[in-house]
Structure formats: C-alpha cells, structure tokens
Amino acid sequence: NTVESGNFQWSAPSNIALVKYWGKKDNQIPANPSVSFTLNNCKTVTKLAFAKKESSISLNATSNDFSFDLLFEGKPKKEFKPKIQKFLERIEIYLPFIKDYHFTIDTENTFPHSSGIASSASGMAALAMNLMRLEKELNPAITDDYFFQKASMLARLGSGSACRSIKGEIVVWGNQQNIPGSSDLFGVEFPHAVHDNFKNFQDTILLVDKGEKQVSSTVGHELMHNHPFAEQRFAQAHENLDKLIEIFENGNLKEFIKVVESEALTLHAMMMTSMPYFILMKPNTLEIINAIWKFRTETKIPVCFTLDAGANVHVLYPNKDKGIVLQFIQDELVGFCQNGQYICDEIGQGAVEN
Ligand code: PMV
Predict the structure, then answer these.
(1) What ipTM does this complex have?
(2) InterPro entries annotated for this entry (predicted)?
C-alpha cells in the first residue's frame, strides 16, 4: 500500500443500556442480547496520527511489536497503554496493516474525568472508527455497510458495550430471534418501527459517586460464571428485549418504564447475589429512585431511571416533558449528587468523523 502518513479524527458517544449486557463467553461474546440508547453529548474524541514504519523496522518486528504513543487530554498516559496494547493484539488478525504503522492516539472525553461515567464504550468505539478509516484509505472500495459493521465488531473486542456506540439511535447487540440481522459479533441499528414518544428521548445523568469503580466490568462479567441465577437472567433478557420491540412500536411508556427499571435493578441484584457480592448503589442512589417514584405517582409524568454498574442514576424521559422534569431534578435531585453535578444528554446518532 502507498499510504505513508496522515491523521484522522472521530468522535464516538457513550450509550446507556435498557436491556443490560452482564455476562460473557470467550472472545467477547455476550451471554444475552442487549439494547441501548446511543447518547449525544457524552463522547470521546480521538485523533489518530499514523506514519508508516521504515520497512527494515517492520521486517524485524516481533509479533507483539505494536508501536504507539497514547495521549489523554494532550498528556502521555501510561496507565491506558496496556488496554490499548491488548486491543491491538486482539484485532490484528482483522487489520493486519496495523503492524506497519506507528500511531499517536490522542484522546479526550467531553464529560468530566473520573465522573464515574465509563469511557470504555466511547473510547474503544472512537479508536475502532479511526482504525477502520485507515483501512478505508488503504482499500477505498469497501462499502459503508462493511465499514460500520466491522467497526462495531472491532469495538466489541475492545469493550463489549462499545459495539453499541457506532451507528444508530437504538442499537441491539446479540442474537435475538425477532431482530433480523442481530448478531453476537457486532451491534445493529434497531430495525423495527419506533414510536414518536421515543424521539429525542432525554437522559439526565446524576453523578452520585464519582469515585473509581468498585468492580470493573471485566470482574463483573466473570461473576456471572457459576452464578446461581445466571440461566434465568439470560432468558429474562431475551424476554425483555421481545417486550421492548413491541413497546418501541406502540409507544407504551408505562410498559417501557417497567422493563427498564426492572433491568436496572436486576443488574444490581446479580451483583448482590454473586460470590463475592457487591452493593454498588449508594444511599443517594436509593434516595433518587424513591424521589422519582414519588414524582411519577404524583404527576403521572413517565420519567424513570436506569443504572450502570455503579451508583450514578440515568433519568430517562420523553423530550416533551423536559421542562418540568429538569425543574424537578434541580429542585429535588441535585442535592443527592456529588458537588451537585449532573449531565444533560439525549439520544444521538453514533460516531462521526470530524
Ligand atoms: O462493555 P463492558 O464490558 O464495560 O460492560 C458494560 C456492562 C454494563 O454497562 C453494566 C451494561 C451494558 O449493557 O452496557
């Protein structure tokens, strides 16, 4: 190939799962299908500079010899290098040219550092997009479908949920009978009808605890091996995804709330009933959940919560209720957030080159 050097920049968003991915098999194959809303504002922006190595160097390269520098917010970040190294090792068989280049990966997040918001989904998605962009430069004939599907497959190998941060507003990852094209290997845009109730759906992320994660997702997924409720849980995820197919079509927000809140609590229930066991919610997580339930009962406004593997709360609600819900959040929920911090986000489209 003749591409000597250059650079690309892609940004990729975070996503929030409605049906949760928790438990995996070898090679980042999910134990159950999941579905997420793609976010819009919480993003990783990654610049990839590449320069072809001298041929004598690349001939001498040994199999573990990737050459890259990593900058986070403009400064070298040694701590992130092993994760990137492992990622490159996993994807090399799909992108053999990566050994021929030296890379400088320059990355930053739009959300505050150590906010307790996982940046692995957006970070791995942004890096996968850049590397695919280089493949396209080397092979301009590849189609858009191939480009995005392979980007999602690569992102999955970096961090499972990252495959849902590539393209589309609602993304499904994992084989599911009623979802044509769905795969364990990559995320696909939700292919069925979606009611207007979900248009510009809002996600306000309440930062309850910005500390380091108590349980990494790697450890978390492992907890599902030999978990007493694993098989039931995996079956339930399929059922909940089936319910959501119908709910997305008919716009029934009452039913949506039931599935989404139950999924969030089940995720935490799995952690509470594994060995070793963990409680990742904080007292303020429960205060917020109770306040949301009270507000919903009193106002009938269809606002609900979901949770990641941590204490922060994602508050989900229709765009048309934005004014009143934001007022409620400011009046009654901000007091439960660390330093009063929260992030307003909404459904977005996926990764973009910029
Ligand atoms: O992508 P991972 O391995 O970091 O796992 C993410 C797991 C959850 O965020 C808890 C659920 C999900 O589906 O995103």
Answers:
(1) 0.99
(2) GHMP_kinase_C_sf, Mev_decarb, MVD-like_N, Mvd1_C, Ribosomal_Su5_D2-typ_SF, Ribsml_uS5_D2-typ_fold_subgr
